[in-house]
Amino acid sequence: MNEDRLKYLLERYQANECSPEEQAELDEWFHAWNPGTANMRNWLQEAGSAEALTEELYADFKERVAPPAKRKGVAVWYKVAAAAAVLIVLLIVFYPKQHGGGELAHTDKNKQATRPVHDIKPGSNKAVLKLADGSEIVLSDSGNAHIATQNNTEIQRLQSGGIGYQAVQDLTDDQPPVYNTLTTPRGGKFTLTLSDGTVVTLDAASSITYPVVFKGRERRVQINGQAYFDVVHNAAKPFHVEAKGQLIEDLGTAFNVNAYSDDPFIKVTLVEGLVDVSNDMEKVSLVPGQQAMVKDGESKMRVKVVNVAETVAWKNGWFIFHQENLQNIMKQAGRWYDAEIVLDPAIMNKKLGGNISRYKDISELLENLKLTGGIDYKIEGQKVTLTKR
């Protein structure tokens, strides 16, 4: 992509005017260079404006966010041979779009021709907002700035993306709390700024229920699925998250909660600050880099050190797996691509690892899996079948 095209797309992005095709083009360019830690909107704010994107800044951006030379545009996948405890590492190199069309390196044209005719596009920003009266509003990247008014609080579409709550006037103590619920479908992701300034990013197939305005001595929300919280700390009014029987209390924090109803656990991972995680039987305090996990039906908490970048990679537009079984990999892929996944039992426990952008079509992920050896796949509409080769 040349500089003029990038400026054009960024200007439309800032104005929330990108068509789905333009948004996909911009996402593909950005994630081809982004190693998984940068954020396009934050970078734009740092740059000042799309107009300020001179040739020099354009080059500087690529230098700042591109992975090191050995990693640029590279998705690494490996299969763990459990019986021999040997790692077989297969490097699969993708050329970014601006370097030749996204072809797999080390594959010839005949092999490329075997790629599926039908594909499944990645998820996008979309959600459904349920208001206190039960009415529902479908949300996406485009639409009117004003969405609704609830309990003297205006719900607005934010320039930075997502929606936010802004009080029009102070509430009286005798006014009962009013609750909204934001739900992302399979194939959706969305960002919410609560009335206290706390920012919540929902992954696919997730939901959060929260008061329009926080009243009383605490701020409390409930979630299902996966969410990343960047909490505005207030010692006089602690922030609590309820999820699958666990209570997470903020002590000045950014953290990730993975609490899907179809997963047999809840995981709370601390990115920065401090959190307490508790249930009826136990309470633990986490420091950055730690994760508390509780299995469904149990109270015992298991605390371990994890790779935070891997845990929150979904928020930054990446799949990153480390010795993960194929069943769990495809469960995550199924949510993001809104795909029905059918797995041959003979391969569901294969251990795999690697990273790939979530903004690639699903065939890019499947080709990586296929080339590790022993796996074939077929795409029929929104159904993906994986079998042993």
Q: Helix count, per DSSP?
A: 8
Distance between the termini: 38 Å
Helical proportion, percent range: 10-25%
- The CATH first-level class of the largest domain comes to Mainly Beta
What does this structure look like?
There is one protein chain. With 389 residues, the protein is α+β, with helices and mostly antiparallel strands. It has three domains: 3-65, no CATH class; 74-114 and 321-388, Phage tail protein beta-alpha-beta fold; 124-310, Jelly Rolls (Sandwich). The chain has eight helices and 26 strands. The protein has helices spanning 3-14, 20-33, 40-47, 55-65, 109-112, 308-311, 326-337, 362-371, and strands spanning 74-81, 86-93, 124-125, 127-130, 136-139, 146-150, 153-157, 163-167, 179-184, 188-193, 199-202, 206-211, 219-230, 239-243, 246-250, 254-259, 265-272, 275-278, 283-286, 290-295, 302-305, 318-325, 340-343, 351-357, 375-380, 383-388. The chain has a 19-stranded mixed sheet that branches. A four-stranded antiparallel sheet has the order 2-1-24-22. It has a three-stranded mixed sheet with strand order 23-26-25, covered by helices on one side. The longest helix has 14 residues, at 20-33. The protein is globular and about 65 Å long. It starts with a helix and ends with a strand. Mean pLDDT is 80; it is low at 53-57, 61-74 and 80-113.
